[in-house]
Amino acid sequence: MKLGKELAELTAGIDALYRRTPRSDGFLDKEGLIPVAVADVTPSSLRDYSEATAALLALRSRLSAEAESPLRRDYLEEMIDSLLALIETFEERPITFADRIRRQIRVDTQMIGDEILDGYRTTIRQALDELGFAGGTLADDLVRWETSAQVPADAVLATIRELTLEARTRASASMYPMDDQWMEPVGVNNVPFSAYCDYPSRKVLMNLDFAYTRFGLKHLATHEVFPGHLVHLALRERYVAEGSMPLDGAQVVTSSASSALFEGIADNGMFFLNWIDGPEDVLGVALQRLRSAQRCNAAWMMHGMGMAFDEIVPIIAEGSFQDPDATRSRLAFLSHKLRAPFVYAYWSGEVAVHELWKTVTLGRRTEFWQYLYSNMHTPRTLLNHWRGG
Questions:
Q1: Distances (CA, A) of 128 to 62, 72, 118, 120, 135
Q2: Tens digit of pLDDT for each residue in 245-268?
Q3: Contacts of 14 (CB under 8 A, 6+ apart)
Q4: 234 has pLDDT over 60
Q5: 335 and 309 in contact (C-beta within 8 Å)?
Q6: 38 to each of 76, 82, 220, 251, how far by Cα in Å?
Q7: What is the model's pTM?
Q8: Is 306 in contact with 103 (CB distance < 8 Å)?
Q9: Counting beta carbons within 10 angstroms of the beta carbon of residue 97, is it exposed (0 to 12), middle (13 to 18) or buried (19 or more)?
Q10: Exposed (0-12), middle (13-18) or buried (19+): which is 168, by Cβ within 10 Å?
Q11: Which residues lie below 8 Å from residue 307, measured CB to CB, with a gap of 6+?
Q12: Phi, psi (deg, nearest 5) at residue 203
């Protein structure tokens, strides 16, 4: 617990240093390094990033002797290294984008190849055929399905509210009692996201500039609320308050070692709730994964290959089966220095959690969820410390 308290205080101190540098008043810059903390943390008083680096290295040197468990030792090692990489970025020292992905998000993914993307496309084709959208190209048939399945703009908030209520019922019945928890959907415009879990205000901010299918809203209800971010944060808040989770578990830290599992847990919400209903949901999952992978590829094209944004947009639009204007809007965050590697947290996190989830027997799901939600993880620690079955 002592190490976790010290790490939380250091991380809050680094966040304070980051916020001292003048930036825009845009949504992402206002978030800082720590967008959400579910417990009070006193920031370490740090003069500069050099002092922060020295403190992190000193903390890392104590892990072998003081960590409470092998899981905590390994997680803290990876989290500290991700913060060191973030400091290199903040100080504008040379660090490659590949190293930022590897050290901050803790994955080796760069470009996601056609072998994987073609698998998603095959699943989409099969589901479209089953739904009766056949006879044209994959792109044309998918556009026809998305158009037919689109929820009217004036029904988006009511639909996601309905789906969130169903998700809460399912989560309470099979995972954790959550009947006392709620997040109200609220419409917003001109923001750099489709939906956002505003945990402190218990609201889901829904970008009404985007079009949504019913599947898309179902995905967001499970990702942002039940059993995704709301459940994850509520449990972490409870566990930290009870003293069963170290204080660093109270912080959401952007583009850090904790990011992939924060997003990966949320992106597996429909699977945890056993809520994949028929070919439309199968199609939706494959399309979600395809577009998530393509956003990783867009980030690599920009920051790993040096391609211009205007070159990237039409390539990703075609590969994602999306309108270029919609693609441009959804990729706008890639120019944000702190957020640029974060896109890998979605695809890599979803894969890391899902691959392990598929191995968990029905009788051990409760045990797996406890392991997943009550510990801080990276993709590597998640795999290495789960006792299978």
A1: 55, 45, 15, 12, 10
A2: 999 999 999 999 999 999 999 999
A3: 33, 46, 49, 52, 83, 86, 87
A4: yes
A5: yes
A6: 19, 21, 22, 7
A7: 0.96
A8: no
A9: middle
A10: buried
A11: 301
A12: -130, 145
